[in-house]
Design a protein that fits this description.
Pfam families: Ribosomal_L14 (PF00238). By secondary structure, this protein is mainly β. The protein is built from two helices and nine strands, in the order E-E-E-E-E-E-E-E-H-H-E. The chain has one domain: Ribosomal Protein L14 (Beta Barrel), CATH 2.40.150.
């Protein structure tokens, strides 16, 4: 579960490294976000020569969490880190590559393009 002030790793080639959640979207009283949810993030660190700068506010989609989530068939999945992929204001990806594995839940919610760009699907 991701909430405000959570530090997140960015797993695409946009140039940003670490972001902090500042708002959970899709509901005024929503406190926690899970895999596949949209959040607002502020960039905390980035590469030197990237278009994305420190302090920039962007949207992101959560793709991995440490908190275990349960699928409909009863299996539980958890990862070693909390990770996101950056989006622009029109909910389109900024990056062209994704590093690491993704889950099927991301595809069903928003972007089916994410699946074709990832290395592996769980």
């Amino acid at each position: 579960m991701i909430q405000e002030q959570t530090l997140l790793k960015i797993i695409d080639n946009s140039g940003a490294r670490i972001a902090k959640c500042i708002k959970v979207l899709n509901g005024s009283k929503k406190i926690y976000a899970k895999i596949g949810d949209l959040i607002k993030v502020v960039i905390k660190s980035s590469n030197i020569n990237s278009k994305i700068k420190k302090g920039q506010v962007l949207k992101a989609i959560i793709v991995r969490t440490k908190y275990p989530f349960k699928r409909k068939d009863g299996t539980k999945l958890s990862f070693n880190d909390n990770s996101v992929i950056l989006l622009n204001n029109q909910n389109q990806m900024i990056a062209t590559r994704i590093f690491g594995v993704l889950t099927r839940e991301v595809k069903t919610n928003y972007l089916s393009k994410l699946i074709s760009l990832s290395n592996e699907l769980i």
